[in-house]
Write a structure and sequence with these properties.
mainly alpha, two-stranded antiparallel ribbon, flat
Length: 81
């Protein structure tokens, strides 16, 4: 499947998580975070994503984790949807 096809499918379906549109970029960040959380070496994830710097991978992971924690806290305060 080509990236353009993925973009079109996501745009047409208007997929959202916690109010944020799902994009190929968001999926990429999520995949990297899931790999790291499951113990995959960050250097492998760096090479897989083609990033020149390991700090970029670490920053992505930290940002996704903060967003997930914030979302979970809001869900706890608001109760079930």
């Amino acid at each position: 499947m080509r990236l353009h096809s993925v973009r079109l499918a996501l745009r047409d379906s208007d997929c959202r998580v916690a109010g944020e549109r799902i994009t190929p970029h968001l999926l990429r960040h999520t995949a990297a975070t899931l790999l790291i959380e499951r113990g995959v070496d960050t250097h492998f994830v760096q090479k897989l994503l083609g990033r020149p710097s390991i700090s970029t991978i670490e920053n992505i992971h930290a940002r996704v984790r903060r967003g997930a924690q914030s979302w979970l806290q809001r869900k706890r305060m608001c109760g079930p949807a």
